[in-house]
Amino acid sequence: MRIAANHIAQHNESLQAKHQARLHAVLQETDQAEAIIQKLMAFNVAIPSWALGTGGTRFGRFAGAGEPRNLEEKIEDVGLLHALNNSSGSISLHIPWDIPKDYAAIRELAGSFGLSFDAVNSNTFQDQPGQPLSYKFGSLQHVNKAVREQAIAHNIDVIQHGDALGSKALTVWLADGSSFPGQLNFRNAFENTLESLEVIYKALPSDWKMFVEYKAFEPNFYSMTVGDWGQSLLYANKLGPQAYTLVDLGHHLLNANIEQIVSLLLMEGKLAGFHFNDSKYGDDDLTVGSINPYQLFLIFKELVEGMDARGMNHATDLGWMIDASHNLKDPLEDLLQSVEAIMLAYAQALLVDAAALKAAQLNNDVTQAQEILQQAYRTDVRPLVAEARLRAGAALQPLQLYRNAGVRKALVDERGSNTVATGL
Ligand code: RM4
Ligand code: MN
Ligand code: MN
């Protein structure tokens, strides 16, 4: 299914008067509006191929309907999102959940929706049918060299799939670790993992990056071999200039100061980018901005400040991706909400008066520093984000149009109500 341009135009027309009035109100608040709109138009968040169907927990999964049955239909779904918001112009594949069969055809299909391929993700946290050796006790860390070699070969295979599609990064997330004290020798696990990553790193094309993702716990509950940003940074530094640390917002212990982590990784030139989601307890994988939008704003504030300090391009120099699981909501609606939350946090961060904040910091004016941040956070930037979409031919209100156009019903009619997408 595709949403016709004239359908979007009609929708925008019907909301135009109200939009202009709201936009006018924000224009009174800032003289930066035009620059912010331009940056918003350039910004893009990749959609994971594994989160277009219904997710589940270990207690069960309550299926939705009209889920994409194959990679082509997943691309079609991301195409729908991008047509609606002009900010979802890429897809991140998980191998082997989404192995492309005909690269040229897949590239052409994605191109027809204006989509490109973001980082490719390897999977050594599950055993695949017919796989000779098991990952039950880890993959790149495994005590048995043959298991490590199998996991290395898989990662190199993933690079080759990604290369054929035009991806430029490999994300390695390892479930490796231990669930009981004494199970592992920490140092040996680290050394095995590093040695394995080194072989994969050597297989990277020269214009590729390797993203080393960390996670504090789950599925292992005593130690994770890439458990926090310190460990990830150790690997990234030892591997070399093409390796970076990837921050998934749900992968920290409770109350970790993620914005400070981001600031320091950026300072070191080692921040890969993000897996966005939200959480209250752990790796909850909830809709971005649904629990703690203020934290998201504070993270973006560090991102904007840190990227500007290094002269980086906000849109292209880091990897921006959603990594969430949609257990209750329609995945496409959920993703529209997530992208919107990211765009709002980014717009609010762009609104921060950086010079005034610097002056307040130099004067130890704590009160004023808080005022400056909250002035930006409490400004209603929704009309700026909507204006960026309008100018790009996307929808003023993507979710509203998605519902009014009956997109999910059309997808169910086309695909059936009992389809199951590969993924989480
Ligand atoms: C992990 C991690 C990875 C993602 C898998 C599906 O918790 O966040 O990034 O690829 O889940
Ligand atoms: Mn992740
Ligand atoms: Mn996760």
UniProtKB/TrEMBL annotation:
Keywords in alphabetical order, please. Answer: Coiled coil, Isomerase, Manganese, Metal-binding
Matching InterPro entries? L-rhamnose_isomerase, Xyl_isomerase-like_sf
Coiled-coil residue windows: 352-379
GO MF annotation terms: isomerase activity; metal ion binding
Name of the molecule in the record: Sugar isomerase
Lineage start: Bacteria, Pseudomonadati, Bacteroidota, Chitinophagia, Chitinophagales
